[in-house]
Amino acid sequence: MLPSTEFALLRRLATEQAAARVPSIVAAVVRNGEPAWSGTRGLVDGETPGNDTQYRLGSITKSMVAALVMRLRDEGRLDLNDPLDKHLPGTGFGSSTIAQLLSHTGGLTSESPGSWWERSPGGDWKALQASLATNAVKNRPGSRFHYSNVGYGVLGEVVARYRGTDWLSALRAEVLEPLGMTRTTGHPQGRHARGWAVHPFADVLLPEPSHDAGAMAPAGQLWSTVDDLARWTAFVGGHTGDVLHPDTVAEMRAVATVDDANTWTAGYGLGFQLVRHQGRRLAGHTGSMPGFLACTIVDTGSGTGALAMANTTSGPAILTLAIDLITIADEHEPNLPAEWKPVETDPGLLALTGLWHWGPTPFLLRLIPGGMFELTPVSGAGRASRFRPVDRDEWLGLDGYYAGETLRVGRDAEGVPSHLDLATFIFTRIPYDPAAPIPGGVDKAGWRA
């Protein structure tokens, strides 16, 4: 980036480190799927940390476990609406669905019973399940957002059952290695930061413990580096490689529930935290474990992302810092729009484009990049959605009012497109075309004064 931009980013990072009294902090900005800037302040073992220095990620681990669950869904191994009992029978909370566990609306207790799991060695799945035999459900499933670390311990076990291995081995094979995240591990390896607590009234440090969380590990076990977390930040922004289809990641970023319902600024998707801030819509996750704070977040509009990791239990406003880094990057160096280029298109699809009418209301059907269609009201206000191809003459709604609905092309005896059938609504080339199967029929006298 420009020297002036890099200095502004570094100054923001330096201000946070000094004001919050952070032993060390690292950060980066990601654009177009690649790191655009990285910076550091403070020391690790007397030396400046680098992009290969490991920090603990905490709950960012949850987003990666969610990616494994979505892979199972895309393979047809499970459905998000399935009750947990279908895939992990024998628990006392089997009516909670997979989607509810992913979005923290399953009603489960926030923490595992017994000793504070983040500072205690964890047991295996049988021990966790036994501890949840009674009083595990705190809210009616689906009724509200209630953050549950336990829910992701459960999802980790679902993954393990289907893959025939532990969740971390599955994650390594299916997500980390394909994305090139070779320095993301369950325990620190090589150069890493030690976790510290900073005294609230004096500039002294206390080392924090770091245990294996056992069956609760899918809620916050992982360690990573700037280089690796930049790859994950790019993934959240849609540069998904072969791990998941970009549409699936977009589905994970969609709002499943909100945390402050009146004028919501914080919510949750399927494994991602969601934030609205000064007109920006952001997705990613924060993380905290004793001695560590972390964040990865992406502006879904501009595509710019940022990450930050610190080795302190509390102090820095890690999410605010990451959002500020995005804002600085976009304000100093706004992204240029992608160059328009013509693309080869199936002539049969061109025949579907243009003006269609829902009753008397005109809509435009346009081909857009990726071989998809976009249906929008001519007036600009009303129901609009994008559709991706499923089969010949069949398209699936991706967003807006028609998300999940099917658009089908009707043809006349000569094979010419005659109407669109979208969730029972009939769109025709002219308003209320009498030759089309308009529900209720069309008055034979036609239009009149």
From TrEMBL:
A family per Pfam: DUF7586
Q: What top-level branch of life does the organism fall under?
A: Bacteria
Domain (DUF7586) spans: 346-429
- Write down the InterPro entries for this protein, in alphabetical order: AmpC-like (IPR050491), Beta-lactam-related (IPR001466), Beta-lactam/transpept-like (IPR012338), DUF7586 (IPR056008)
SUPFAM superfamilies (UniProt xref):
beta-lactamase/transpeptidase-like (SSF56601)
Domain Beta-lactamase-related, residue spans: 12-320
Q: What is this protein called?
A: Beta-lactamase family protein
